[in-house]
Amino acid sequence: MNLVIQSLTPIGPEHHKPLVGLARGKRATVIDTHAIRIDGADPAQRGDLDVYCHTHDLDYAFVEPGRQLRDFGLLTMDMDSTLITIECIDEIADFCGVKAEVAAITEASMRGEIKDFNESLARRVALLKGLDASALERVYDERLHLSLGAERMLAGAKAAGLKTLLVSGGFTFFTEKLRTRLGLDFAHANTLEIVDGKLTGRVTGEIVDAEVKARTLRETCAQLGIEPSRAIAMGDGSNDLEMMAAAGLSVAFRAKPIVREAASVAFDRVGLDGLLRLF
């Protein structure tokens, strides 16, 4: 396998020899100042590599030799805490004074401690009842930020011919704005019910849970005429696991431990554009 090592800071030559040795690899090739590739690496050496990379703030990933980004046809992304830095529902909750309560449920759900995502979402949305819908616009304008490297990653994916899908257990108010702003091809999320300009504390239609996320990925692949093995899926929480398992390559981004362990690749330090360096 190829082993790609990345860092937010430049990787000095002093790391090349130790990493080649730990990986039982052949040689280190500089990709750019923030990444190197080690050819002929042994995936069985993950334990030693994990210790070294953790100590030196490095991310590493094993990639099949010769694989290229254009081999894939679809890039699927979770929204909250993946494409963007916030959990939108937590920030909405801040406007009605229940952020701590909602955030605690969000965190437990993402760690997989609350098994029923639908129940988790219903509990959180119910706490928003009566909030003026203008709070959604304020969250988007004042608090929503793209994750590091997001725009560069999307530009690289589009240049390689991939279509883009944003699929979220969050809300269409935000996914549609991002779809337009970033030129994404597809988006799917939950719809908050609004009556007389206020949130009712309910969502309308089918809730986008883990099963629906995975189904959306498969259906989008079918629409594009490709197999799910040609999809990349990126996420951070337990409700992304089924979607990530359905894809040919899964990327855990600043993710919960249960997601990092299941993913093909984990980025704990570098930005989303780390995806481009893998190929």
Please characterize this protein's 3D structure:
By secondary structure, the protein is an alpha/beta fold. It folds into two domains: 2-66, 2-Layer Sandwich (Alpha-Beta Plaits), CATH 3.30.70; 70-277, Rossmann fold. 41% of the residues lie in helices and 23% in strands. The protein is built from 13 helices and eleven strands. It has helices at residues 16-23, 46-55, 79-83, 88-94, 99-110, 117-126, 134-142, 150-159, 172-182, 210-224, 241-246, 257-262, 274-277, and strands at residues 2-6, 27-32, 35-39, 59-63, 74-77, 163-171, 186-195, 198-204, 231-235, 249-253, 265-267. The strands form two sheets. It has a seven-stranded mixed β-sheet, with helices on both faces. Helix 12 links the parallel strand 10 (249-253) and strand 11 (265-267). The model has no long low-confidence stretch (mean pLDDT 95). It catalyses: O-phospho-D-serine + H2O = D-serine + phosphate; O-phospho-L-serine + H2O = L-serine + phosphate. This is Phosphoserine phosphatase. GO terms for molecular function: hydrolase activity.
